[in-house]
Amino acid sequence: MSHNTLTKIFFSIVFISVSASPLFSQKVNTEDSLMLRKIFDTALLEGKSYDWLEYLSNDIGGRLSGSLEAERAVEYTKKELEKLGLDKVWLQPVMVPKWTRGIPEYAYIETAPGITSIANICALGGSVPTPDGGIKAEVIEVKGIDELEALGTEKIKGKIVFYNRPMQANLISTFSAYGGCVDQRYQGAMEAAKYGAVGVIVRSMNLRKDDYPHTGSMTYGDTPANMRIPACAISTNGADYLSSALKLMPSLKFYFKQKCKVFPDVQSYNVIGEITGTQFPNQYIVVGGHLDSWDLGDGSHDDGAGCVQSMEVLRLFKKMNYQPKHSIRVVLFMNEENGLRGGREYAQQAQLKNETHVFALESDAGGFTPRGFSFDIDDATFTQVKSWAPLFKPYLIHYFEKGGSGADIGPLKNDQMVLAGLRPDSQRYFDHHHAANDTFDAVNKRELELGGAAMASLIYLFDRYGTKKEFTTIKK
Amino acid sequence: MSHNTLTKIFFSIVFISVSASPLFSQKVNTEDSLMLRKIFDTALLEGKSYDWLEYLSNDIGGRLSGSLEAERAVEYTKKELEKLGLDKVWLQPVMVPKWTRGIPEYAYIETAPGITSIANICALGGSVPTPDGGIKAEVIEVKGIDELEALGTEKIKGKIVFYNRPMQANLISTFSAYGGCVDQRYQGAMEAAKYGAVGVIVRSMNLRKDDYPHTGSMTYGDTPANMRIPACAISTNGADYLSSALKLMPSLKFYFKQKCKVFPDVQSYNVIGEITGTQFPNQYIVVGGHLDSWDLGDGSHDDGAGCVQSMEVLRLFKKMNYQPKHSIRVVLFMNEENGLRGGREYAQQAQLKNETHVFALESDAGGFTPRGFSFDIDDATFTQVKSWAPLFKPYLIHYFEKGGSGADIGPLKNDQMVLAGLRPDSQRYFDHHHAANDTFDAVNKRELELGGAAMASLIYLFDRYGTKKEFTTIKK
Asked: Taking the mean position of all CA atoms in its chain, how far away is CA B322?
């Protein structure tokens, strides 16, 4: 696009901003409109989240539960929150699992003795190791767990099961495509073991064709320790290659070796900061993300972004001298990826202390352009919340729908509160999710900052117009 | 985000899809809804635009008007269109300007004799060269053209004027931020020359801090040839550095050398393909982008993306055996960036041949996630068009507003037709615009394909429900 169009576009945008105003001024307060403008201005002109993320990503790196990096992240974010002049900052102890990947995994496809090609794999999180010498076996490719029964022990025993059902590219929400595939990763090994498989390869949960294997959690369920088989993810390019090779030579062999290990649980922490409410100090609003990440990349999108956006919400309020009526807490949850211990511990402590939580918002879907929010909410309250949507239109935030919220805040759920999740544009999320390319350079500063501003705006509205209970009271 | 949340999200998405249906089924036809679903499915599952863009970008590269690359792009896209089984494919001759950058530009900041630091610059498109030995002069920094008058000839004469007003980061539309700055680039040299400046440096039109200088068109207006002064863009990091250095040492000198040159106009072409309409073969719908680009990157976002998306629209219709009522043309315009000759020639030929154009859609704002369309349209027709918006909601396309369309289709404008522009997410566009990092790797396959599908959907609706004239007739 050259100079020629820009004047037209410029004026059209001015026109839109102006013409949109009367529409929502009928429904919402001008004061709210100005407050949102101020939040977005402050976030975009004087944002801090990108700098925080740069440190978390490049100076600390991937923050798997129980790792040195996770502990450094706890220390760093606590220190940064303390600089903000909040009313309280503290660490909430929580014991977390410690699983380590060990030395780099190693795999190849052998089409004839000595004729091999490398396969890009990584161990799934929680997998057992292979024997010291690795595993070499024939491969049986399936499109899903449901094919195992028909094949039966006869065809599976002694082999490596290769789950190769791709994410469905025609689904608009990539989370929906992920949801339709991830059973292979999560339960694949447990199910294949029942038929005597010796190992499992899973096609990476990635819509792109590339060479990155994507890790992620898996379960063995009740499988006895001596029956647990190792599981790895293979890159999408690797999966396509292996599948083609199997068509030409069904008897080829796959070799892989991984040295992952489970250690006893270790001490870790949720990091919490609070601005105490002026009117309802004992009613809490939570905004958060998870501080832990997988170990392959530096966890910039999953979920460094959500952490720094949540910290930014409180920083913006302090910067703008906004004094909330409710107590607002940022919670950086530990161990979302492989245990959810932080989210469970926070909810349990809240219950023990009889703390009333009225609203919780999580950002855990990447630092991309915010498209809106999904609300775990009843219909009456949703109607109220949806009436705020026009306030967000000038920021091109249109998506207000009922739906899930976030894993870490899930345990808080009760009938008296609202849970919500930030919904950023999802197209690129699974290009990076749980892989070595979830790195800082894949995050755009403006997109990250718009997300933080959107979150602060929603929290401001909940703080101002009250909780679910109050909505019910207001309702005629 | 781990496995824990996905089931919730998956079901929430299914729920949203189902619950949204009754809303728009009242307004629009189920057949249309199914057609759009088929368009998006085909684009996402069997798309071709990404492959085309890969060739245009990596095998051909930057396609400045009059260059070998531009001619190769004409040849390649014509050949690819011929493979689609369209009714007609042809080249429309157009004479285009030929400006060349010459050998790489070279610049430094000299704080004392022999004490220098490199500055990342590039010549602005259309700039005259410096003298063979380059230019070295003191620098006067301004925030805009309007400061020149107050400074006057006394303070400007013999110096290099440094325009350093940054894009406004708090504007949500980056095009709006661009529109608020680009006068410095377009008219800066012409205005500074009036006060005796010997050269011009312009802060790159980029919201990021990085080391890429961004080129773009400029004008000398009526300035006589011997009064024209050379102009370059400096990277945003370079601009910040220069500005800081000037504060410490206002007498520092800036040296730059560039060897750009204007050649006589050369022959080039618009590339056109057509599916002839079954019912109104003499009424034309145009979809297009511009085939030329600047020379620093490979023009993937600006505007390779728009070209391959436009080609994809016709490919999708052929693939789906959709036979349009109106004749649908893809037009790949030549020379948008520094002349608009292709757009003007197409419109002139249309007028000479008395061709009735009913709708034109341009994609020239990058290959990012489509957010919607802006329409250059009267209010009555806009109401009709806006009634289609619910059809796009399942694809998270919400933006239907009045506004500009595209530079290349602008010359077609008349009262009897509708012009529109695809509006992708704009946050990252100016990170790459006219710079060396406008490259293929910055384009996401899904985002590109979603844009093409959105365009095909809108064209289908215009083809089915008619033109502006027909709307007027239908209106009660």
From this structure: 29
